[in-house]
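Why should sequence recovery work at all? Because a backbone constrains its sequence more than one might expect. Tight turns favour small or flexible residues, buried strands favour hydrophobic ones, and helices have their own preferences. The token representation captures these environments compactly. In the example below, the structure is given first.
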């Protein structure tokens, strides 16, 4: 098939290259000239503008967006007038599913299909394939089947249409919330192991043992083992953890749906907690302990 890829960052460029390796023709656009040049060196067609990208695609066109969630509306505003009825736009980024439902309705009024593809795989997706959680009109999804089959780990696994517009991004949002909880559990467990100084435990060795046969084995554990092998003490890494926003959306959705999600919620709170360099809350806790029990206060 022929596809337009808008956004040639790490994810977009790797996905485009995987498609090219799979026999598809991909024309890419990125506002950064360097990103376009790098993509061209990887066998990806490079367009200097959205208009040039659309003009290079045969009708009915398929354009895949890999842009930040905050840039989707602006991109669509520029892209929509260039498209024709029957064309399909795929949003493969981490958009809020509510925005996706709105965007699908707006594009439908112009005869355009809007498919949301929650995409997981990170920097390893080029080699291993991507997990794709797809929402949208069934016929539009089916037309792009060769694209999904090539991006996925295998044609028959790792991808699927999960429901109507918005359902793909909703599923990816929950996926990321689960990821938060799993990562937090691994981090806490290894922290406890490392604190048991008298045993002199080798955390990399333990991670390697757990990778085979253990009920806690997973790809996240594989990555943890790799990180511990390269840097056993994690020297030089600041204890500051970002979040993509999807964990927040997951917790908000759990509240809206009256679903108890304490693990995901706590893991999100821990990420926020990691950013507090001068915690007023901790200072107040110390002051309260001193007030009621005379416990010592450490001075800064």
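From this structural description, the recovered sequence reads:
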């Amino acid at each position: 098939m022929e596809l337009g890829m808008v956004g040639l960052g790490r994810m977009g460029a790797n996905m485009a290259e995987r498609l090219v390796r799979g026999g598809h023709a991909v024309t890419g656009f990125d506002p950064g000239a360097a990103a376009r040049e790098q993509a061209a060196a990887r066998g990806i067609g490079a367009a200097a503008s959205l208009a040039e990208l659309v003009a290079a695609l045969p009708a009915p066109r398929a354009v895949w967006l890999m842009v930040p969630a905050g840039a989707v509306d602006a991109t669509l505003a520029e892209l929509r007038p260039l498209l024709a009825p029957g064309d399909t736009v795929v949003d493969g980024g981490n958009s809020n599913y509510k925005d996706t439902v709105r965007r699908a309705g707006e594009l439908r009024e112009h005869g355009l299909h809007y498919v949301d593809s929650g995409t997981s795989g990170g920097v390893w997706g080029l080699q291993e394939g991507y997990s794709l959680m797809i929402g949208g009109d069934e016929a539009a999804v089916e037309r792009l089947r060769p694209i999904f089959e090539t991006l996925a780990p295998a044609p028959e696994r790792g991808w699927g249409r999960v429901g109507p517009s918005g359902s793909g991004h909703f599923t990816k949002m929950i996926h990321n919330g689960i990821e938060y909880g799993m990562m937090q559990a691994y981090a806490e467990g290894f922290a406890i192991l490392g604190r048991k100084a008298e045993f002199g435990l080798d955390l990399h060795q333990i991670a390697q043992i757990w990778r085979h046969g253990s009920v806690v084995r997973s790809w996240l554990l594989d990555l943890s083992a790799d990180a511990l092998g390269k840097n056993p003490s994690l020297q030089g890494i600041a204890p500051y953890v970002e979040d993509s926003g999807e964990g927040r959306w997951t917790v908000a959705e759990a509240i809206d749906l009256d679903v108890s999600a304490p693990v995901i919620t706590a893991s999100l709170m821990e990420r926020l907690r990691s950013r507090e360099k001068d915690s007023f809350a901790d200072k107040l806790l110390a002051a309260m302990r001193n007030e009621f029990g005379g416990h010592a206060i450490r001075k800064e």
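A few observations help interpret the result. The CA atoms of residues 45 and 203 lie 45 Å apart.
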